[in-house]
Protein 1
Amino acid sequence: MTFRMPDFIEKKKLAREHSPDSIEQFIKSLVANEIPDYQTAAWLMAVRLNGMTDLETASLTNAMAQNGEIINLDDFPNSADKHSTGGVGDKTTLIAAPLAAACGVPVIKFSGRALDFTGGTLDKLESIPGFQTSLSSEHIKKQASDIGLVLAGTSKNMVPADKILYSLRDVTSTVDSIPLIAASIISKKIAGGAANIVLDVKFGDGAFMQKYDDAKSLANSMVSIGTKLGKKVRAILSSMDSPLGQNVGNTMEVIEAIEVLKGNGNDDLVELSVELASRMVALSRGDDDFDSIKAEVLNRISDASALKKFKSMITAQGGDERIIDDYGILPHAEFRFSYTAPESGFISKIAMRQIGNLVRQLGGGRLKKDDVIDPAVGLRFFKWKSYPVEKGERIVDAYYNDKQHKELIESTLKSAIETSDSQGEITPLIREII
């Protein structure tokens, strides 16, 4: 039967189930550029509104992975990968990956770009002068063999359907669809070839899944799909009701990641990064002695071996390794604005979506799929949710390059950050391991 995209859209509009065959035909037509963006966007919205069954999601994941290049990592049977579902100030990949690699686990990770109000690992890495994220499979395997650490983007031929869907999701308000997120993430993990996968699934105002139960559903879906497709998968459910770490913005997050690897990290950021790295090592080794592994991972910070791994990766991928000791080489913004507490009390709320979208509006993310990112802009926090604050005390600094953005920054921060007389409930950073 001839595939017709209007019929495919109509079926999902009416909340009916796609057959595995029709999903395969859709992905093949998408990759062949036979479907215009407006029809794909209509289907994405139908999925966002009506969902997909487990069979549909598994079929979509497999079709996306198989219709493209799959990296063969048989030479690295214990390789590990890590993925976050996206958050504000989430630079854990830049920390957890070198930590795991410094423990002897080959880490070959394929990352993505900024999506909606959240940042992207590739955009952060590309703020390093000369750093290349587009690598051939031969380069990837050689670098994995030489230094045991690769952070790259998927090649043009790897999961090409996801590149199309990813860019359209970002500009059609369909980012937070559980089946679309699960298929996007796991298809790239299948194509990436790593045998062991650790997922950081966010919940809270700064996550796509704001409700914990939705985040848990997504985690269960991804673990189930990955396991069915032959991978060992673990998921960590972590809170995103405050910025993760101190900095939000591409260059600024690279600097903060380096500082963590130097032993100067924010407690929450270190806690989650070490947990992720330890899970990667444990899964790769098949070792249940988690306390011992966590101690080993922490030691990779104190002995600077993880920092050395990160530096070696920068060099191997064409970046300027001098940034490790000279942050002045990185792009920096021209202007700074300090937002201070209007009254004494406790910070009762930080509206994380507003914070993420502010950085996006300053140029740190994309409003249209072909926007060019300004790597220098961002925010630096000095206080977080539930922290005490005195009137006039600095809460956050904003860094920007367009003078006209000052008013936007001030009004957004005033709206996004609230204080109260009581400290309120402190949400644990890590809620559950699946």
Protein 2
Amino acid sequence: MMASNLATQYRDLTPAKALDKKTLNQMAWRSLFLQGSFNYERMQAAGWLYGIIPGLKKVHTNKEDLSLSMQHNLEFFNTHPFLVTFVMGIILSLEQEKADLATIRAVRVAAMGPLGGIGDAIFWFTLVPIAAGISANLALDGSIAGPIVFLLMFNVVQFGVRYWLMHWSYDLGTKAIEAITRNAKEFTRAASILGILVVGALTSLYGGTTIALTIPNGESPIVLQTILDGILPKLIPLGLTLGLYWLIKNKNWSAVKCIGLLLVLGLVGGFLGIF
């Protein structure tokens, strides 16, 4: 591997000056391109180096040290794309202090690991359902503001998190790892539970599938949907949701297959007058 051919320490061991806010903000902006050259050998390594290189140029005025830093920052890297600036801030603080390369590598691996579960819990399980629920209600009412509100809510939060983590983790240095991982499991579980509750609420509020079948009964036909509502309102959307959950968990169905199944059920059911 390339790492075995690298030196273990920089030539110039004099700590560099603290990075200015403009450089930190520039790296936060560049973090948007983290997965621009994603590959299965080193994952996000090229995007990581592209994002962090403005800081490295300020820290390493010695060209050989800059080259060495760029080489080891091209090693395997993979973390949550919205939380990557957390790792950037920590690594830049170590590069600024001219720490030995083994320490920088170890910290980079330790910092990138826990962020996957935390990021998924925050963004995909919590933020997206909340933003989608609010914007979907607007869209169902025929308002063009629906998709605009969704994009604004999601991007304002994720941009804010990127910039805040960049400055916060850089100021804390390696202490930031302990701060964010101390209760990582509990935090991830709490955020996941909140996301599940939100998804359940959305199923109840916006699940619109109903049964259109009726049983002839003279002048007062029996409407099956009315009977189902008397048993449990939104019973059909709940059944569909639980059915999809079972297929995903026990049959390893993908989200695409589930969407395809719902599409077929909707078309066939609508054609036959069931839904």
